[in-house]
Fold this sequence. Notes:
Structural class: mainly alpha
CATH superfamily: Cytochrome c-like domain
Number of strands: 2
Distance between the termini: 69 Å
Mean pLDDT: 80
Bound molecules: heme C
Radius of gyration: 22 Å
CATH topology: Cytochrome Bc1 Complex, Chain D, domain 2
Order of helices and strands: HHHHHHHEHEH
Number of helices: 9
Number of domains: 1
Amino acid sequence: MRSKFGNLMVALACVFATSASVWAEGPPPWAYGFTTPSGTAAPAPAPAAAPAAPDSTPRHVPGSDKVFVRQQIANQYGPADWFPEDHGPLPEIVAHGRQGAMIAACSLCHYPNGKGRPENAGVAGLPISYFIQTMHDFRDGLRKSADPRKANTNRMISFAKNMTEDEIKAAMRRIASEARLVAEPSGAVALAGALKLGLSPKETVAVLSGGNVELKLYASILAG
Ligand code: HEC
């Protein structure tokens, strides 16, 4: 009789064999919002319909007294802000992007509070050095989607390529001053450093891991 452990190993071997054969065919298309596998052409778009009349239905969300129409909510260069009282002034790049360089407002996909729409990433509370590094990775072609057809990741990459360092830091500063959280015990070291530099505890965030804290970078971002 096979032991329970033996059964477990057989079951695990089956799982690994299945996932290895699935992966050999590329990432599962459903995970990226496609019905056909990666490497095949994206399905031809449906024939263009006559442009829809602007939807003037007033929209509401619970807890906000603001009213917007769909076009305002989806405005790439100034999306609706349902809870403006919940945050301080937004940097230009977060509120409006930079239309001349086709950089959509960060708040369109990540919201002014950085929590992000479900189909996009949440950016609130990211460690500062990770944020900067990942923007550079998008820019330098080191971070991309496993399915190259994925349009929102490709747009994120093009924004990072077109952003200036100052814009990246302004966006980062926003997230740092908004999140108001302190996590990871090792972040306390960075927090102590930030306080020594005279930064207010109420406005300071430290979600920093011990090894990658760059105090100078942190201070220059918060001070800027
Ligand atoms: C059109 C939607 C869209 C807009 C606008 C947008 N992003 Fe993103 N962003 C994404 C998506 C999608 C991802 C996840 C990419 C992936 O890994 O597939 C992402 C990821 C990120 C990440 C990495 C998050 C992580 O956990 O690793 C950062 C940082 C980021 N965006 C910053 C910005 C900044 C700054 C702006 C404003 C200039 C911006 N984004 C505007 C869609 C957007």
